[in-house]
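Posting this for the archive.
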Amino acid sequence: MKLTAHGTVTLAAGDDRTLRGTIVEFDRPTDDRRGLIIAAGSLNPREPLKRTKLLRDHDDHDPVGFLTAVSDDRRDAEFYLPAGENSDRALEEARNGLRDGLSIGFTVEEYHFDDDDNIVVTRATFHEVSLVACPAFAGAGISASLAFETTPTPKGNPMNREQLAAALAAGTITQAEHDAQLAALPNPAPTAPATPAAAPPAERPGELAGTPQPVPAAAQLAHTAPRPVSLRQLAQDVSAAIARDDRAAVRLALQDTIPADDAGEGFIREDWRGELWQADRTDRRMIDALGTPQPLQTGSKIKGWAWDVKPDVQDYEGNKTAVPSNKPKTKPIEAAVHRSAGGWDIDRIFIDLGEAGFLEAFWRAAVADYKQDSESYAAEQLLAGAFEMPSQPTLLKGLSKLGAGFAAIGASLDAIFIAPDLFEEYSELTQAEVPFWLANATGVSLRNQSATVADLNIRTHPDLAPGQISAFDKRAATWFEKQPPIRVNAIDLPKGGIDLGLFGYDALLINDARANVKMQIGAGGNG
């Protein structure tokens, strides 16, 4: 954020192109921006120093010089004005008292509000200083001797050894220029400390004189009446901050027009983000474990057949003896189509004048709820049609019995689902407590409550009762579904509304209950 805070100064000349002065007063409110305080030590110049320009009235298109030195506390500064029409004009205006104040432009990086609701800037980088006619800090002054961090004399003027070293560090001269000028200097000779000469009085406060001297406070106050920020400048500050989406900058810029005056929220308003993410159980673990859903065609039932008695092939003696035979039988299998639906009567203003993504967000939420409903239905049907194996005292005993049972009928143990309480028991097993096949080929994920044993995935399911296990061969059941769910939009013109409806159709057909089992795990230790 770019702000300006002014320091009234009297400008003095170390040579005919160098100006020195106080750029800011710390720890006191500015006179033209009520509620803005710049804390001592908060300002930092850009590096190298000459990147910070001296402007006229904060006009980026009107540079007149650049920064060459700042004091340790960043209160005072020195500028060099190269020869040229703009710089000559700036020097003349300073000498004549037309523009003899300084105003800094800086970017706020850290700030807070004090008990009086003043904005206290605690860290900032200043990137320009401007010559102005009426600065805002009435109490700032000029010092004849400043403790500058660097005090290089600009290019084109002879410099001593210390000035050359400082200029090289500040980047205002190159290494080659430094070495050349250093070689041309005479060897230093010891000298006695110089006694400061009496400074001749300046013709008047604010005028460039041969030697700088302090200006009485009364003289400073006489020409530093606070000036209000123009409406144009305020609008520019606020518009630039809004364009950058810098809300802190907007609040700072509006200190002259306080936030309470912006009741219409023309500049500061709520940060509207639209639909927010919410956790939702949209995965369908059991349905996905059954494989790709089959499409629903027509009718309200799914029908098929299965062997009641399979053809039996036996040993045969030959020699024209009777061929073994049996009486194969089939049986019908069917499943009713399960229906899901939701309907809503929406005032059409939500569509006509509401957020653009409202309708799509509405459908996403409805489909997510349908997925939960269909997954719960699939789990209910699988458990209802499952073959119930004898209960086991521990989870490990149960897993072992499942493997043996499926192998006995020639089924593949494709999926195992356990109740959430069993997963807690499973995840706490130590390597010493489990058989080698589990200890050497397992990975437990707490992220989604699943485990991998060789090529088998063990997962939890929220629809299982405590201590319950559901296991199946994915060929043991087939999931049928109308995809995607049907969405209906109807206009309710007499009531000025829109009717929204979602309809889902699905069915689960159990092909072989022997390969779809359930088991109860009783109380016991981690066996």
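The chain has three domains: 2-184+208-226, 228-270, 339-520. The CA atoms of residues 57 and 132 lie 5 Å apart.
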